[in-house]
């Protein structure tokens, strides 16, 4: 069994919130996370694009920057990026071989191993800053074992309620666990949740309060963002689509400013960011396909609002999701957008709902079922614009087909 086979097999043991095992694992590895400074990026939606933008800005500022994100789309090594470049697979596998016996000794879970692996890889790559996307929640997420100089909480919505709590307030308290008393933090949560974050005692800036922004749409080219901060004003371009993309870029820019990055580097980094699989447009059969990992109602609303802002009223929708997601809520949001719905599933994800089980949520719409993502893509009308949305595992199986790449081919749980 190869190291990756061993690691992926551990996905089946599930998620085990808590910091004891990952602390023990990092200690056995010599606490590599002490060799660099860290930013933690949590929230329900938008974590990845915010983290990617901040990492690009820090790199533009001359820092050697690590970016840790999850899940990956096509290749495991996508999770570990240094200065905008995915680490070579052989580098990742060599580090994993060294991590494995230590992980087995402490019975670490899949994500705990991946987090510790990221710390080791970044230390050995000599990064000065690591931007770490939080996995699940915050307080008990493995990434929270790190000691962030600054934390970002993008937003809070209902997702993973079986673990994080049934209300937005309960989820906000869990996500507030990545904040540190007296240290800077930036957030885009709604005003009613701010007191829950402020209770931690962090030096918190919030969108709409300390951070005010105006956005000018540039169509499919993204946005011009103008920001007023305490004692400063910034203007920059982001290629991220959707109003939420502009907001996420603003969160990253505000965080960078608080870390001492200047306006020129903020502009250069924000303009150069790319975030695959999230409102990403790729060519297909003489037309275009937009990929987006909108797997909860808030994410679906952001997708619909983005397309409306781009002048798209109705289009074919390919959709697939895990069985434990709020499919009814997502379907209700997507319904006015869909000229037809093609339901499919991520073949490599055992958690994926069968297309027939998704179908009742889309009753009344023109509906077709496809057993595989390849069949779903073949059903899209050629020459136009279609959207593939839902599970990131689905996006991870569709994207390589659009690009002519080879997918990883391993079962996906996390």
TrEMBL record:
In the record, the note on similarity to other proteins reads:
Belongs to the folylpolyglutamate synthase family.
Q: Which residues form the Mur ligase C-terminal domain?
A: 277-391
Fetch the NCBIfam families from UniProt: folC (TIGR01499)
Highest classification ranks of the organism: Bacteria, Thermotogati, Deinococcota, Deinococci, Deinococcales
Superkingdom classification of source = Bacteria
> Mur ligase central domain: from which residue to which, for each copy?
41-256
What is this protein's name? tetrahydrofolate synthase
What gene name is listed for this protein? fpgS_1
Species of the source: Deinococcus carri
As recorded in UniProt, its EC number(s) are 6.3.2.17
Listed InterPro entries: Folylpolyglutamate_synth, Folylpolyglutamate_synth_CS, Mur-like_cat_sf, Mur_ligase_C, Mur_ligase_C_dom_sf, Mur_ligase_cen
Alphabetic keyword roster: ATP-binding, Ligase, Magnesium, Metal-binding, Nucleotide-binding
- Which Pfam family is an annotated match for this chain, by its short name? Mur_ligase_C
Catalysed reactions, as listed in the record: (6S)-5,6,7,8-tetrahydrofolyl-(gamma-L-Glu)(n) + L-glutamate + ATP = (6S)-5,6,7,8-tetrahydrofolyl-(gamma-L-Glu)(n+1) + ADP + phosphate + H(+)
Give, as one word, the top-level EC class: ligase
Q: Which PANTHER family match?
A: DIHYDROFOLATE SYNTHETASE-RELATED, FOLYLPOLYGLUTAMATE SYNTHASE-RELATED
Gene3D superfamilies (alphabetical): Mur ligase, C-terminal domain, Mur-like, catalytic domain
């Amino acid at each position: 069994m190869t190291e990756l086979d061993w690691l992926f097999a551990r996905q089946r043991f599930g998620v085990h919130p808590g910091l004891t095992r990952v602390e023990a694992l990092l200690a056995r590895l010599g606490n590599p996370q002490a060799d660099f400074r860290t930013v933690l990026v949590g929230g329900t939606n938008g974590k990845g694009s915010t983290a990617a933008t901040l990492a690009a800005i820090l790199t533009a500022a001359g820092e050697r920057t690590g970016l840790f994100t999850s899940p990956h789309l096509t290749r495991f090594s996508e999770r570990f990026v240094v200065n905008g470049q995915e680490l070579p697979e052989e580098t990742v596998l060599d580090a994993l071989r060294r991590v494995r016996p230590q992980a087995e000794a402490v019975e670490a879970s899949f994500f705990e191993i991946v987090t510790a692996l990221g710390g080791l890889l970044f230390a050995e790559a000599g990064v000065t800053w690591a931007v770490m996307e939080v996995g699940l929640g915050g307080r008990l997420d493995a990434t929270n074992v790190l000691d962030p100089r600054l934390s970002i909480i993008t937003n809070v919505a209902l997702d993973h309620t079986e673990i994080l709590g049934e209300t937005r307030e309960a989820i906000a308290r869990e996500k507030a666990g990545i904040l540190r008393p007296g240290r800077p933090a930036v957030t885009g949560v709604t005003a009613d949740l701010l007191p829950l974050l402020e209770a931690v005692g962090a030096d918190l800036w919030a969108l709409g309060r300390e951070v005010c922004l105006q956005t000018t749409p540039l169509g499919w080219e993204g946005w011009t963002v103008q920001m007023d901060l305490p004692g400063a004003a910034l203007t920059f371009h982001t290629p991220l689509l959707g109003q939420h993309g502009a907001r996420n870029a603003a969160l990253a820019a505000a965080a960078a400013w608080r870390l001492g990055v200047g306006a020129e580097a903020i502009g250069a980094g924000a303009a150069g960011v790319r975030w695959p699989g999230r409102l990403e447009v790729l060519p297909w059969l003489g037309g275009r396909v937009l990929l987006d990992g909108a797997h909860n109602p808030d994410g679906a609303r952001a997708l619909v609002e983005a397309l409306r802002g781009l002048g798209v009223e109705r289009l074919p929708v390919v959709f697939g999701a895990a069985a434990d997601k709020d499919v009814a809520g997502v379907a209700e949001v997507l319904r006015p957008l869909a000229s037809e719905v093609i339901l499919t599933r991520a073949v490599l994800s055992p958690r994926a709902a069968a297309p027939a089980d998704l179908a009742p949520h889309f009753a009344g719409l023109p509906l077709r079922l496809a057993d595989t993502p390849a069949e779903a893509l073949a059903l899209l009308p050629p020459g136009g614009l279609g959207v593939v949305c839902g599970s990131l595992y689905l996006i991870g199986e569709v994207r390589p087909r659009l690009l002519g790449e080879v997918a990883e081919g391993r079962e996906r749980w996390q």
